[in-house]
Amino acid sequence: MYIYKVGIVGAGTMGAQIAQAVSFAGVPVVVTDVSEALARRGVESVRRIYQVRVDKGKMTADQLEEKMLLVTAAADLTALKETDLVIEAVSEDLRMKQHVFHQLDRTCSPGTILASNTSALSISALGAATRRPGKVLGLHFFNPAYAMPLVEVIPGLATDQQTVEDAVGFAESIRKAPIVVKECAGFLVNRLLMPYLNEAVLCLQEGAASLKEIDQEMVAFGMPVGPFTLLDTIGLDISSEVARVLHRSYGPRMAPAALLEALVKAGRLGVKTGRGFYDYTGAVDQDLAVLVQKIAAETGRQGTRWVRSRLLLAMVNEAVIALQEGVATARDIDLAMVAGTGFPSDKEGPLHFADRLGIDQVLQELEEFAQSLGARFWPAPMLRRMVDAGFTGQLAGRGFFTY
Catalytic residue at 140? Predict the structure, then answer.
């Protein structure tokens, strides 16, 4: 099915960015919210994204106006009646999203695909709120959606294969790189990224290294920004909620660092509040050091060893677990982490990185970390099977990939 017209529900940051990405590809898009004023504010956000392109000489003012003719605002969901695809981008609240899907199901034509931009919530639960679960799936864009190429396509338990194929085709038609991901908490990218970020916070709260040392070393490895800069940009409240979702689903290995939750309680949510792990106000900041000392005293864990493989192997191990579970293929796992998080392209993703390091070396380091740092580093069973079979990576000619 070709997508001729798209609806967006939720005119906030992500809704506006998705609307811009859709209109940039020449597809008409209707932006809706609870009021026409909010919907129009979303359309103005689309205009600002285009204006940046004009300012950089990437398009002309006339081209901007041509694109804006494709974007309209509406306060009523009835404006989405004739759309082929609706993408929901409201707050990460399951009940709210289920209500939206129930209303869309009653409003839109029977052939309309209903998609959610959720980063972690159950697609199957959203489909169950409708009479068309076969037409419901996840389309998870990454922030900023106008620049990030990756889109996770997540079928629910009842999603039809044709719906998946239509969604993949749509993503490709708007110049995105779609990967199909088996439904699970956090889907793929957030599920692999959170152990990396959480381990960075644990390193800080345990005094293994300083904030700047950790960020600088991960940038030196090739990441576009350090983990604390990324956390501040995402928002610590959002990161903490994702961590809680993962913890509920996967248990102790995903337990959130106490320092992350303490910062949220202190109102230090990152860039948007002026303070997170870093201070963006220009003032002298002693509060973080006090919080770190307080958490260290409460947990009784201080002076652990810093090595950047703590962060990287936390991600690698979860990638292997996801591969075992059939969440995605090895190729798609690596593609997702390069395109969705900026994992260094010369290292080709966490599974290629593991192959180059040596699967036997990965297993050995994880076992050492499990003994010294805890069971969150317990190696994925697949790693031991690979080592026993001689699938030890690039030097052996075979690992997660063939060389």
Answer: yes
Active-site option among 88, 152, 348, 365: 152
Residue ranges of the chain whose pLDDT lies below 70: none
**Can you give the pTM of this predicted structure?**
0.91
Domains of the chain: 6-180 (3.40.50.720), 189-299 (1.10.1040.10), 309-396 (1.10.1040.10)
pLDDT in tens, 21-44: 999 999 999 999 999 999 999 999
Catalytic member of 88, 140, 199, 348: 140
Give the C-alpha separation, 202 to 98, whole Å: 35
Report the alpha-carbon distance of residue 11 to residue 119 in Å, rounded.
Answer: 17
Catalytic choice (117, 190, 239, 317): 190
Is 152 an annotated catalytic residue? Answer: yes
Q: Hey, how many other C-beta atoms are within 10 angstroms of the C-beta on 297?
A: 10
pLDDT tens string 351-401: 999 999 999 999 999 999 999 999 999 999 999 999 999 999 999 999 999
45, 119, 239, 240: which one is catalytic? 119
Catalytic residue status for 298: no
Question: d(Cα 61, Cα 360) in Å, to the nearest integer?
Answer: 57
